[in-house]
Give the backbone structure.
Amino acid sequence: MAGSSKQTLKLNLKIWRQEGPNEKGHFMEHKAEDISPDMSFLEMIDVVNQQLIKKGERPIEFDHDCREGICGMCSMVINGNPHGPEKATTTCQLHMRKFKDGDSIVIEPFRAKAFPVVRDLVVDRSSFDRVIESGGYISVNTGNAQDANTLPVRKENADLAFEAATCIGCGACVAACKNASASLFVSAKLAHLNLLPQGQVEAEDRVLNMVAQMDEEGFGACTNTGACSAACPKEIKLENIAKMNSSYAKAKMKSRS
Amino acid sequence: MSNRMSYFCSTIGRKQLIGLTGIGLSLFVLTHMLGNLLIFVGPEAYNKYSHALVSNPAIYIAEAGLLLIFVVHLLLASFINLKNRFSRPQKYAVASSGPKKTTWIQKTLWHQGIIILVFLILHLITFKFGTEYLVAYDGKEIRDIFILVRMAFEDPKYVIWYIFSLIILGLHLHHGLASSIKTLGFNHPKYEPKVNCIAKAYAWTVSIGFITQPLYFYFFYKG
């Protein structure tokens, strides 16, 4: 193919294999051969899986969907880093040209009590869904699309809310955090809705309920290390967490129940 | 809704209390360090300052308050540390690296706290509850804490342990102080770099300020 790199890669993979949620897992060595540097990381695993299937072995299971960096499904920890070493990159957008021939790569699932392993690299992230169900929505009927500017929104708030709304809920923040805290995810969802006029009505209940649900799911506490933001493929800012912290304390103080 | 848990039971609430008590303790160590610097003025200034502190009846209230703050900080931090461990029952085989890395200073905050606790207990035994030497100024006898300090810092083992513990305190404040401010809800992009810088400068001013004492006595002080 025109423009593609000539040399293929040979890699030594050490991948977490686990039969089921209650089974004991272990690392298994796999060889990846004839890997084009133009492949994505997931395509590389596809190649390995094809070989495993041919040999009659069980392929490596992993989550993936859009493969264009917007769905948040791919979830794996590559050499200790969620979504691999690159900044602002999901695993599906990580290319094999970032690795060298002969590299050893350790691939693990996201590790958190709230993200139990389903099989191999697949984890159950429905704890995030339950956090969203607890308040990550607006109940106001916004009606049909309005004329532009009938509802004034401060430009800065619109930008910040939009930035927060780019969170794809992949869970890399939890995976990167030394305490498996979901603070970056929850704070992004809160900033996304609470900064806009439509989100104001339920803003206080939202922060109380979402934080409570976050705790109930068994996520850890935030220590402001910033690893979450560094691992976030959408580069959600750490400052959202401070905003969540202050609005939680304020809402708690005002709350009558 | 069942989601109305108490502020003091929530992770954020507890972290904020750890942050608040931590800031309180940071203010205490700064005043303690500044008071200690009187040692460079001379034994009389140091002993009189110490006497003025302990002879003030308000000392009991201050000490009780300090103890309460310390206990709250310690217990909540231990609880949160335990919760954090439960939040990731299975550790990663490989540690993160590059920009996604968490520093060892950030990872060992609780361990640092335990070293500071051990240091504090020994420190109180050595000095506060140590031998009571007396000295007379203007015909009035007060406790000679200066001589006790001088004698303690004659022992190289104690000097090394003291300096090690104070470096740990510096590390603890290095991350703890800046993090506490964020936990309490202040993280503005315009001020954050400056606040971080000031918090770190504060941490090392306190740490180095304390460390000057054993170095002074061990290397420079001549009777």
About this structure: Chain B has eight helices and two strands.
